[in-house]
Structures are given as C-alpha cells and as structure tokens.
Amino acid sequence: MSSTIIKTCATNKKQFFESAYFTVEAALILPTVMLFTVMMIFLAFYSYDRCVMEHCAYEAALRGTGSQISSATEAEKAASTAAERLIEERLFALRDFSYEVSVDAKQVTVTYYSEINMPFMTWLGEYVSNINMTLNVSRSAKRLNPTRTIRSFMLISLQNYQCKGDLT
Is the entire prediction scored with pTM above 0.70? Predict the structure, then answer.
C-alpha cells in the first residue's frame, strides 16, 4: 500500500512540474505573439496610410493642372484646397500631418509630411540610432495647356503630311 502512495505522489509531482513548464512557456511566448500581432496590424495601417497619401497627393496635383486654370496662383490655390480636402479623416496610423504645394511653369507638386505613430517606436529609438519616423510623400503632375497641345499636334501632323507629299 505504501508503494502505491509513493507512486501516486511521484506521478502528482511529475504532473505538477509539467504544468509549471507550460505556465513558464506560455508566460514567455504569449507576450511575444501578441506584440508581433499588434505590430502587424500597425504595419497594415501604415501601408494603407502611405497608399492613401500617395493617391491624394497625385490627385491634388492633377486638380491643380486643370484646363480652366490659367495662372500659377490659381493652380496653387486649387491644389492646396484639394490637398486639404482629399486627406481629411482618412489616415489611421499617422499624426502631425501637413502638406506643401509648389507650382512652376511646367508642373504642380504636392508633398505630404507626417509622423508615423507606431507602438514602441520611442523605445526603439533609444536603442537604434538615426531612426527616422517621418513619412514624406511627394507627387507631381505636368501643367499642360490642352489647346496649345492640340494645336501643336495638328501643326506637327500637317508638317508630316506636307513632307510625305513632297516625297511622292
């Protein structure tokens, strides 16, 4: 009878130690898995925000190149209005958002600036030097005058036609 008690006690100790190993493993693995999951979610937010910013910057630049716009100040005003309205309340993981519009004779450029809001990045910045947590997206569109473009194309076509007529 005492041998069965000893065997039962040894089996209980083994089960106790096995459950303790499981507790220690779970205490180490679970936070790592949760941290990885949260970082993947924020990476998806960052990717989405970057795509939205690139699209909005290009669309705002295109709006500054409309055929009804004749001067650089009108182009800058149209692009600035579009840059502000297009991006409103569409970003998830970015903060301290700003934009800049530059217009010259040939193109309109819209640039968005923002800081990336990721968990543990300030902590990571203490251990990794030269970490840059800003996102700068710049897109430009050419300023074309449709009337002038069509007339130039027609002139080239006419010259081409005349040259071919001279050869035959």
Answer: no
**Where does residue 87 fall: left (phi above 0), alpha (psi -120 to 50 degrees), or beta otherwise?**
alpha
- Sequence spans of domains, the chain: 46-167
- Tokens 């008690």, residue located: 5
Q: What's the pLDDT tens digit per position in 101-150?
A: 999 988 999 999 998 877 766 676 677 777 777 889 999 999 877 677 77
Q: CB under 8 Å to 36, separation ≥6 — which residues?
A: none
Pick the CATH number of 46-167 from 1.10.10, 1.10.1740, 3.30.1300, 1.20.120: 3.30.1300
